[in-house]
Amino acid sequence: MIVILKQGITQQEKDKVRSFLSEKGFIVKEIVGQQDTVFGAVGKVSIDPRTVELLPGVSSVVPISKPYKLASREMKKEDTIVQVGKVKIGGNRVAVIAGPCAVENYDQIMTIAESVREAGAVMLRGGAFKPRTSPYAFQGLGEEGLKLLRKAGDAFDMPITSEVVSPSDVQMMAGYVDMFQIGARNMQNFELLKEVGKTGMPVLLKRGLAATIEEWLMAAEYLMASGTDQVVLCERGIRTFEKATRNTLDCSAIPVVQKLTHLPVIGDPSHATGIRDMVAPMSLAIVASGASGVIVEVHNSPEKALSDGPQSLYLSQFQKLVHDIQALCPVVGKSLEKIPRVLPKNMADRSPADSPDSLTVAFQGVRGAFSELAVRRSFDESVKVLPCHTFADAFDAVSSGKSRYAVLPVENTLGGTVYDTLDLLAMHPELTIVGEQQVRVMHNLIVHPGTRIEEIKKVYSHPQGLQQCRAFLDRELPNAERISFFDTAGAVEFLASTDDRSIAAIAGAPAASYYGMEILRQGIETDASNYTRFYILSREENAEVYRSQSKPDKAALSFSVSDEPGALMDILKMIADKGVNMKKLESRPIPGKPWEYLFFAEVQLPETKIFDELVAEIGKKAVSLRVLGIYTSVIE
Ligand code: PEP
Ligand code: MN
Asked: Would the N or C end of the chain have less CB density within 10 A of its end CB?
C-alpha cells in the first residue's frame, strides 16, 4: 500500500509511522515526489488500512492493486531516472548504449568503444558470459572479457554493462561493471535476480523470450525487493510464429510499460530482429514509441564477429543511426543523452561550478514556458531556473552573473527569426553562444480539470499560439472569443488564477502540469512541424565548460560592411571559397546608424585552421566582425 504523508508532517510523526509499519512486517520505502512524500509499504502482511490512516501525519492510504508494488506507477508517479556513472537513463532523455555482442579481444573492443563514443553512444556494452543456444558456440571470454571491457570503458569515458548469468559471478562482476545486464533467458532466474538486486547496483533487465509484461515487471519487482531501485527495462523482441525476423519486436509494450511503471524502458533492436538492415528502422520505432534509449550491437568487422555478426551494425551505419535518433528526439519531446567530454585539467577544476545544484539558468517567460522546456533539455532537471519578464532581463541576468547561462529563442520554423535575441546579442559583446537547443512546439487546449469543451467561451494565448491553432479553433470553437496574451504559459497561469470555467488557454504541456490544469485537446496546432531553436548564452569566461560537453560543429558571426558595391558579396565569396557551408544569413539595422546594417551568419564549422583563416580574411575586409560563438548544433 501507499501511505501518503501530510505536507507538514514532523520528523517524529514520520518515524512513528515508519516503525508502526515495520513492526507489522512491511518493508518500508520513502519516496519523495514533486508533490507528495509517500511511504511504500510492501510485504505479505495484510492490515486494515484505516489503522494506518488514523496515525498522526498520515493523509491517506491507497492499496496497490497490481502484483508488482515497488515497480508500479501507483507507488511513484514521477519517472525514475537511473544513474549509471555519469549517464542518466529515463525522463526526457534518449540514451544510446552500443558495443559488440561479445568482447573478443583488446583491439576489437578498443576500436569499437572509440568509434561508438565518437558517434554519440553514452554507454558501452559487451558480453563476457554468453548464454548461447548451442554449447559448441563461443561462450565468451569470462572475467578476461570484463577486464577488457572495463579498460575500454575507462579509456573512452563510458560506463559499461555486461550480462551476468550465474549468481556465483555477481560479486566478481560487481567489481568490473557499472550496470548488470540480465539476459532474456534469465529473466525469471529468481536466485540470480535476488543476488543482483542485493548489490543495489543498476540493472538492465531484458524481457524474457516468452514473458508477458506482467511477468517482466514481476522480475523487476524481485530486483527491487532485494535492494536496488535502479532498474532499466529492455524490450528485446518476443517469440512469435513469425520466422522472417529472429524475434518480434513488441513496440507496443513500450508505452504500456511506461504507463504501468515509473522505471525507464529501452529497446534492443539487434536481438529483436537479428538482421542488420532492420536495426536502424526499429531503433527509430523504439524511440518513437517513447522509450528512454536503445541498446545496439555494433562491430568493427561484423563478418568476423564471434557472435551475432549478422545483426551487428557497421561503425558507419551506427553513426548515421545516432544522427537519425537525434533528429527524431524533439518530435517525441526528448533529447539525446550526452556525457561531458573529458575536460582539460584547468577546466576540470572549474567544472564543479556547473554542478546542477549551484547552476542557475535564465529564460524569458513564466514557469512552464517552452523556453523552460529548452532549459530542461539542455541541462539537468535539477538546475535552478530564473524566469525573466523580458528578453533584456534574461540577457542582463547572464551578463551580471545572476545566472550562469541564458536560453533564448532565436528562430521558429513558422514564425522565423526572433529579432530581439539577435539585437540584444549585438548589445552584449561579453556574451557568447555556447550551445543550441531545439524544442517542438506542440499546442494544447488547456482548461480547469473537468471542464467540457461546450463550456468554453474565451480562449487566451500568445497571438502566435492563437494563429497557429486557427484551424482547430475555427472548427471546434468557432464562437469562442480569442484573446491575446503576452505569452502562452502566462495564459495558463492566468487561467489557474481564476475559477472561471468558461476560459481556456493554448500552451504547451509543461504549463498545464505546472499550474495543475488539464489538457482537454492535445496537439491542436495546424502545422505539426513547428520547432523553436534556442541559443544557450554564457559569459565568455564560462564558455569552455559548456562547450567541452560535445564537439562543436557550428559557428555564428556578426559583421558590418562598407557602403560600396559588392561589399557583402566579397565576404560571402570568402565563405564560399573556403568551402564553408552557410546555414543562415540575417540583416538587422544598427541602432544610431540609420540605413546601416549588421549581418548575422551561421556557418557549419570547418577545420580550426580553415575557420581561423576565414575569420582573419573577413576581418580585413569587414568594417566590424565578431565571432558570436562556436557550438554544437542540434540537428534540424
Ligand atoms: C545480449 O544482449 O547480448 C543478449 C544475449 O541479449 P538477450 O538476452 O536479449 O538475448
Ligand atoms: Mn548478441
From this structure: C
- Tell me, yes or no, if 534 is annotated catalytic: yes
Nearest CA to ligand 1 atom 4: 183
Among 163, 239, 248, the mutation site with the greatest number of ligand 1 atoms within 8 A of its Cβ is 163
Give the mutation target among 204, 266, 271, 286 for probing the ligand 1 site: most ligand atoms within 8 A of CB: 271
DSSP type of residue 357:
G
CATH no. for 2-62: 3.30.70.1140
Can you tell me the distance from the alpha carbon of 249 to that of 136, in angstroms, rounded to the nearest whole number?
27
In the chain, count H helices and then E strands.
22, 30
CATH value of 551-636 in 3.40.50.300, 3.30.70.260, 3.30.1960.10, 3.40.109.30: 3.30.70.260
pLDDT classification of 353: cutoffs 50, 70, 90? very low
Residue of the CA atom closest to atom 6 of ligand 1: 183
> Is the pTM here over 0.90, yes or no?
no
Helical spans, DSSP H, in 201-335: 213-226, 253-260, 269-273, 276-288, 315-328
Q: Are 414 and 385 in contact (CB under 8 A)?
A: no
Q: In this predicted structure, what is the pLDDT of residue 31? A: 86
Q: What number does the ligand 1 atom closest to the CA of 181 have?
A: 2
| pLDDT attached to residue 547 | 63
Please determine, looking at this structure, whether the domain spanning 82-336 carries the CATH number 3.20.20.70.
yes
Class of domain 444-522: alpha beta
pLDDT tens digits for 195-241? 999 999 999 999 999 999 999 999 999 999 999 999 999 999 999 99
Kind of pairing between the strands at 624-632 and 405-412 = unpaired
pLDDT band at 106 (very low <50, low <70, confident <90, very high): very high
Reported as a single tens digit per residue, the pLDDT across 540-554 is: 777 776 665 667 899
Considering only CA atoms, which of 326, 525, 327, 510 is closest in space to residue 414? Answer: 525
- Residues having CB closer than 6 A to ligand 1 are 101, 127, 163, 183-185, 206, 236, 268, 271
Please say if 532 is a catalytic residue.
Answer: yes
